[in-house]
Amino acid sequence: MKKISFIFLLISCQLASQGYAQTRVLRLEESKQSAVEYSMILKNSELQIESAKADIMSAKSAYYPSISLNGVGIYGFKDLVGAIPPLLEQSVGNLYLFSAGATQPIYVGGKIKVGNQLAALQLEVARIRAKQSTDSVLLVTEQKYWNLVNFQEQTKVIHANEKMLDAILKQQNDMLTSGLIARNDMLKVKVQRSKLLLNKTKLESGHKLALLDFCMYTGVAFSDSLLMQDTLAGVEKTPLLLAPDISLEVNSTYVLIKKRLESEKLKTKLARGEYLPTVSIGVNAAQFGGISNGLGSKFIPISMATVQVPISDWWGKGKQKLKQRQLSEQIAQNQFKDVESQLLVGITKAWYDMSDALKEIGFAQENFQQAQENLKVSQDNYASGLVGITELIDAQALYQQANSELVNSLANFRSKQASYYFLTGKHTN
Hints:
four-stranded antiparallel β-sheet, 2 domains, two-stranded parallel ribbon, Outer membrane efflux proteins (OEP), alpha+beta, elongated
């Protein structure tokens, strides 16, 4: 644990030394752009797309003839063939053979066409996965961004209440010096202030950790003075959606599972093509002879046509493999229906979560207004001598808690909203 803590501290120091400079204000869109450019996942997605493009070129090459060149040389330490006058005046001690051939498939059970369709489909899948990865990176970045905004707003709450307690403590100290209150009253304020300072320390530590996590995810240079530009003001004015958008055509997961089903159907066609006749034609030219001997050079051109019919596969091993392919296709169909249902439930849940979060803002605002009014009344009553310091401190604590809960509800809505828009393929404003 000590070693891990030391490594974490070392990373923090290095990042801090690199990013320590004047305050930098970061926008949400800027954060997203940086995360997209920095993400290793997205860089790998681009490589996978390039790999799929290469697979398409490979599949297209099956339409063209396959050409081969061959050469063979034989050297014998003794004569391979003795002289046979008058047919062969000299013995043969070495031979050579050169050949060139080209074969053109005419029909291979539709495998070439299906193979090209499958390669094109895999390129589509690679692009969909890249978009899915991009959307995921954008979602995580946005959630981390609003989490930092929440920390910034909570810091403002702490600072405002710290000033309030400092003012009360100064007043208590003056009154204690004048002999108007007991020392116990001032100690109550100090206890409350100590609690606030403890929460402030925890908040600062959590903020720095969240900031480090954000920077390491987005590739933004780390700095303690890094600030998010946005605030949580105006969130409560967001209109409440009347119903969830359950259209799945723009959902990348839904599109991906549909492509997988198409892929399984093409693989079944490809497997069926293995048991259909294949026809191909070819030409071949060869020249052979001996070096420095009586064997003359011969040039032999030939053409050929081949037909292959895998008859035994129709009822044996091939039949069972084809059955397995068909079962895999049925499994993919069932999984498609299952994923479709899960996505509909997920979108509906995300909508309810977002709607509930927006409603919670209203309750939090009402609670905050009541706590604010209660604090004002307690301050007036304390100034008039109608209540003691305990009631004033309790009112201040309730005000601070209500303020903090309001900020949390605003930030929570931003996170829930981002999740809902991610599932529906939309973007937050």
